[in-house]
Amino acid sequence: MIELQSFPDVEKGRNLGAPGGFSVRSHFRSAAPYYLSGRPSYSSLLIRRVVELCDLNATHKMLDLGSGPGQLAVAFAPFVGEVTALDPELEMLRVARDNATAGHFKIKFVLGSSYDLGPRFGRFQVATIGRAFHWMDRLATLKLLDSMIEADGAVILFDSHPEVSGNSWRESYQRLLERYAKGDVESQKRRSPEWLRHEAVLLNSPFHHLEHLSIVERRFTAVERFVDRALSLSCTSRERLGAKADEMANEIQRLMTDHSFEGEVAESVESTALVARRR
Fold first, then answer.
1. Global pTM?
2. pLDDT tens-place string over residues 218-252
3. Beta strand 61-65 pairing with 82-87
4. Which residues of 132-152 are buried (b: 16+ CB within 10 A; e: fewer)?
């Protein structure tokens, strides 16, 4: 069963720009079509390891917070009884719903942000967050989740990135993106010395017992997917760059073609899960 829901106060826009929610709304609206094709997917082996570590089964409910196009919601749906995928961008939820239609699992896609968390959602065994925690008021979100996650449950942060030695193209690709992202306030904030790593935030929360899982895989990615990857980022989205987006796309195409063989680029991708539990 696939559902797309929203709460009335969220539909009216009360919470979309509120503290603790997500920001840069329109940037993600234009990034949504490129997310699944551009971002490195999470390793299926990593998903299974998390399922085993957290003893997930069909009696459990899962919250996917900041679900985006539903990568984690769809990946975990076969292992749990029900998934609630929450995201503040309607276009992301539409992409997620389309991504989930091939399965026969119970997934509810709900319009809302971390600021909307509360008892009306019910209780969950785990809450997953993939590449979205930095958009939230992290301590406030963890405090809210403390009242929603079962005593033996967990908050799990996922990431998947090519920051692995051996990706000879990565430095040039990153410099190109940084040139077009110049002036993006959110990117600058996360690079500042004052920015706390997620681990530091979790250690000062109720979920302070941390385990880190990592899977590294060799993949072959089409050149065009690196263009999609850039357009899926809020700092280099079409909404933010305007006419310069096509200029950036052409530069990426030329750069990655130089690193390709028969239209594909070899990349090492690390998929990670930071499992945070109460002691």
1. 0.88
2. 999 999 999 999 999 989 999 999 999 999 999 99
3. parallel
4. bbbbbebeebbebbeebbeee
The number of C-alpha atoms within 13 Å of 75 and in the hemisphere containing its C-beta is 22
Residue ranges of domains in the chain, CATH in brackets? 2-162+193-216+270-277 (3.40.50.150)
Alpha-carbon Rg of the chain, whole angstroms?
18
Task: Write the pLDDT tens digit of every residue in 49-59.
Answer: 999 999 999 99
Name every residue whose Cβ is closer than 8 Å to that of residue 200 and which is 6 or more positions away in sequence.
none
Sequence letter at residue 166 = G
Q: Tokens 């490129």 label which residue?
A: 34
Pick the closest to residue 225 from 197, 196, 266, 185 (CA basis). 266
Query: Residue for token digits 């280099």?
Result: 236
Considering only the C-alpha atoms of the chain, give the largest distance between any 2 of them, rounded to a whole number of Å: 53
